[in-house]
Amino acid sequence: MTDARFGLDRTATLGALALDGGGTLAAVEVAYETYGTLAPDASNAILICHALTGDQHVASTHPRTGKPGWWARMVGPGKPIDTDRWCVVASNVIGSCLGSSGPASGDPATGRPYAMAFPVITIRDMVRAQAMLLDHLGIGTLAAVVGGSMGGMQALSWAATFPDRVRACVTLASAARHSAQNIAFHEVGRQAIMADPNWANGNYYDGAAPTAGLAVARMAAHITYLSEAGLTAKFGRKLQARDTKTFGFDADFQVESYLRHQGLAFTDRFDANSYLYITRALDYFDLAEEHGGHLARAFAGSRTRFCLVSFDTDWLYPTSESRGIVHALNAAGAPASFVELKSPFGHDAFLLDSPELDRVMAGFLGAAA
Amino acid sequence: MTDARFGLDRTATLGALALDGGGTLAAVEVAYETYGTLAPDASNAILICHALTGDQHVASTHPRTGKPGWWARMVGPGKPIDTDRWCVVASNVIGSCLGSSGPASGDPATGRPYAMAFPVITIRDMVRAQAMLLDHLGIGTLAAVVGGSMGGMQALSWAATFPDRVRACVTLASAARHSAQNIAFHEVGRQAIMADPNWANGNYYDGAAPTAGLAVARMAAHITYLSEAGLTAKFGRKLQARDTKTFGFDADFQVESYLRHQGLAFTDRFDANSYLYITRALDYFDLAEEHGGHLARAFAGSRTRFCLVSFDTDWLYPTSESRGIVHALNAAGAPASFVELKSPFGHDAFLLDSPELDRVMAGFLGAAA
Predict the structure, then answer these.
(1) Which of B100, B314, B343, B354 is flagged as catalytic?
(2) Pairing, β B10-13 against β A336-341
(3) Which residues of A are catalytic?
(4) Which of A183, A146, A171 is nearest to A336 (CA)?
(5) Nearest to residue A276, comparing CAs of A155, A129, A114, A63?
(6) Fold of B10-178+286-366
(7) Do B215 and A22 touch (CB under 8 A)?
(8) Beta strand A17-18 with A24-25: parallel, antiparallel or unpaired?
(9) How far from each other are the two terminal CA atoms of chain A, in whole angstroms?
């Protein structure tokens, strides 16, 4: 007998969710997937939290792009997050556009998409929706919560918000708050979307989407995901399918062509309003602020084991951010391990092939037995 | 008796200019200013080259903004570039929009603005137009050519293209080529402009300008002019004229408000097409490539004295770029001095108050006596 709550491509309609911003989402929908089998005592669940433009398709084919899941190299039978042992849960964050409640969802008040009437949400709101999903699945305590980038922020927020429900927390390439530079880059992206006439104050669901603005937003963000050295190694000043410069405005350089492709491809799989809402949630994130300005207080009395990983060429969420979190964990007396890994790939390194990361992940989770 | 060629707010119509891209500009117009008095033997001329969005108003009121010249703190009587001693020449680069030939200029072939029919130009083309201006002014050899950022590239190009006309070269916060990351940020800006429907393939001079796209381009670029630490020190996560977050999409954070203002203010003083052309010239710049891939060859046999200055928090043109130029100068046997200055202000540091920079500048130019 199979339990229909588990498997790929699931959606749960949960209860009402009171939001940090003061409003309430009436009937939260959460799209999710599970991999592996939940133990009878529900003790082997690992929640994986995705990054800004990620989704629940951690290790399954993406329904819009047809590509493998974004962390298929990390999650699966015999992989570092071994689904022969763990029951992995991955949900689409609220505010997003892959099935969970977001600006493209129907507003019960009007029967039409929320658009900008969707409430502004926070990282903690995302986490609360995930907790409701775990209740639905009968999972009381997580063996671990794991995430990179925005997923790492959710992991930290999980440990701070539901300390008794998280035995271990793995935070990769992340931060406990968004810096002024982080906010600045996001604001460029938001302004690019809002400058697109097709955006129409968010009411574009019946017409053409603001793809040009969203593509520019993605291009700007994409630069921050890569290291300067990585860009130089990959592209340098190499020309794109030509021997000489054209003295025009075509994509002469490979890096231009690459960025344009990244921008355009993104618009096929992502909703511009979701990009606005999720970047806003990121900018609002400041875990210390939620605890009187003291990050250590977020983890006071915590019995969660923490593992933090940063990458030396990540300038979006540099090692100093992870180190600050470790200091706070130390001050709170929480067990924390921390490693800075070498990689030429900047922030994106946490998504890419890294035997060192695999060893850290498998080793840390293995010790959770 | 005054010589009408000298003074503020001048324009010269010069001859035809053959361009690196293969075309020719028929009658090049160059808008310029001079400060100080040219010696009878024309031996005391210093050419100042401006950055991407700079202009000839080095030390005079900007005609559109009403603000002081962009380097008024550096240039004037008794200042580090002392106009009691030097005759300073500053011209608007071709391709720009403050009076020199650019995409907004009239195309003799049609009588209407060139728009995108303006030829793509290079940094060396800008320098050749400046050389024609010096011919017009009766200045054979420069005591020095001085520039920061794109101005520094022009200064290097001057030394490489006209070695016998440059006794000294001062290059601040600059590079000998545009990196993949530099190109990537510019491509974001260009795509933001071109995504604005008002851009209309460049033919907007009779209608509304693509101000929204240009503002986004400026915002993205502006982040690269500041250091992460500088942004944190100046703005951090401080809110803008409010005590709590609004849970909306207004400019809650000061850094958002600041960036929006920078973007909008820029559109009052700059032409979007000029932004396309000048960023293209920057991306094409690779001084080594012009010399068989060997930067040292650009300076072979040079008797110019070089002074390079970088700033430790400049991540747009980091110190490693200046150091690479110094190595090439050393290999070429050219006299070169180099200093990395400390500043919290990132790339913009070369424009800001810096007693150390003032001392370096005055000392280096003084030794030119």
Answers:
(1) B314
(2) unpaired
(3) 149, 314, 347
(4) A171
(5) A114
(6) Rossmann fold (3.40.50)
(7) no
(8) antiparallel
(9) 28
Residue A240 contacts B where some CB pair is shorter than 8 Å: no
Report the alpha-carbon distance of residue B46 to residue B143 in Å, rounded: 6
Asked if B192 and A192 come within 8 Å (Cβ–Cβ), the reply is yes
pLDDT-flagged residues of chain A (< 70): 1, 368-369
pLDDT value at residue A228? 94
Nearest CA in chain B to A211: B195
CATH number of B182-279: 1.10.1740.110
Contacting residues of A for B263, CB less than 8 Å apart: 191
Beta-carbon contacts of A333 under 8 Å, excluding residues fewer than 6 positions away, are none
For the A10-178+287-366 domain, the top CATH level (class) is alpha beta
Give the pairing of strands B29-35 and B87-91: antiparallel
CB B92 within 8 A of CB B98: yes
How confident is the model over A271-312, as pLDDT tens digits?
A: 999 999 999 999 999 999 999 999 999 999 999 999 999 999
Which tokens hold the place of A168? 């271990």
| pTM beyond 0.95 | yes
**CB–CB of B147/B154 below 8 Å?**
yes
Question: Which residues of chain A have a CB within 8 Å of the CB of B177?
Answer: 237
SS3 labels along chain B: CCCCCCCCCEEEECCCEECCCCCEECCCEEEEEEECCCCCCCCCEEEEECCCCCCCCCCCCCCCCCCCCCCCCCEECCCCEECCCCEEEEECCCCCCCCCCCCCCECCCCCCECHHHCCCCCHHHHHHHHHHHHHHHCCCCECEEEEECHHHHHHHHHHHHCHHHECEEEEECCCCECCHHHHHHHHHHHHHHHCCHHHHHHCCCCCCCCHHHHHHHHHHHHHHHCCHHHHHHHCCCCECCCCCCCCCCCCCEHHHHHHHHHHHHHHCCCCHHHHHHHHHHHHHCECCHHHCCCHHHHCCCCCCEEEEEEECCCCCCCHHHHHHHHHHHHHHCCCEEEEEECCCCHHHHHHCCCHHHHHHHHHHHHCCC
Listed by start position, the domains of chain B span 10-178+286-366, 182-279
pLDDT tens per residue, range A222-265: 999 999 999 999 999 999 988 899 999 999 999 999 999 999 99
Identify all chain A residues contacting B232, using CB atoms and an 8 Å cutoff.
Answer: 179-181
Q: Which residues contact A78 (CB under 8 A, 6 or more apart)?
A: A84
